[in-house]
Fold:
Amino acid sequence: MLTVSADEITRFFVRERQEAEPVRWDVRLDAALREILELAHEFVPSEAGGILLDDPRSKRGGNPFPRLTIIASYGPGSEDRLGQRLPSDRGFVGEIYATGQARRTSNLEVGDPLIAFTARGIAAARPIASVIGVPVIVGESICGVLYLTNRQSGGPYGQRDSQLLRTFASYMSSSIQNALDAIRARALLRLDHLTGLYNSRYLHTRLQDEIERADGNGGDLSLLFLDLDNFKHINDRLGHLAGSWALREVSRVLQERMPPASVLARYGGDEFVVLLPGSTIEHAISTAESLREAISGLHLFEDGEYAGRVEGIPRLGCSIGAASYREHLAPGGSKRHRENALLGLADSAMYRAKALGRNRVCVADAEE
Structure:
């Protein structure tokens, strides 16, 4: 039976993307991996097989031989092998990973890591009589190994088997790349093109998810609505290019101050929204003050081409409204109503901060 590990695929994606946020499991890659192993078995029928992928974090850290993790497997004991790791610098699998060349053998050396690996947790498993493997290549990078053990028809794997798997390796690379491209394309649809933050469309989707999660576990959820103070003066005096640069700087500073598990989105113009899953209103206020102080402390346009033109432009500030799902929202209503109500409460609190003199944090009034 074929088994696939979603958690290890997420690790693999870290190498393919630059965002800090872990990528969620995607059914397209799940389907691609299942299809890859099933087709490998059809090409070269074998008792067992699996796909091993490297650890992208270790690779990015400069380790030329990161450990390989089994993320898809079939055959006896396949579930026991998922998540297990193999060294990539020695043995049968290590040679394929290091050279990028297919390999087959009927005589694994004593102590080869693959021997203990395939037997782990499988007392009745048949010893490896023959093994064949090909590199997993995405783009120009070797990122893992696909291996098959014990040819079903008996005897060793032959030259024809190697040729079939080499042909299959090209398909395998394209299949994984297509799945990654599709996920990257969807990820780009979630981002604001100017700041690189999440956009308002993704924010609404994520807010619905977090409300559903809070309903399910009884936890809290807080939301901050931010609007920059005096931003219009930058656009009017220095132009929209300067304004765009300022928004990117503000986004960078906000990201640096964001608590773990929070979600930061550009809502539109110079407005930003922060989701704080599990956060009480007290913690939300503390976070809001930290963000407000960070923006107020920015020294924009003091150097460079705009240095002589900033005189008379008011200092950039930030007005913030904070609302809590538990404390400020009345019970009942549809999920869409609660989503809009929470945003509306924080938005109203932000406008009250503006009316009270700007550059401050105001807490929402509870919904009747």
Remarks:
- Confidence is low (pLDDT under 50) at residues 1-27.
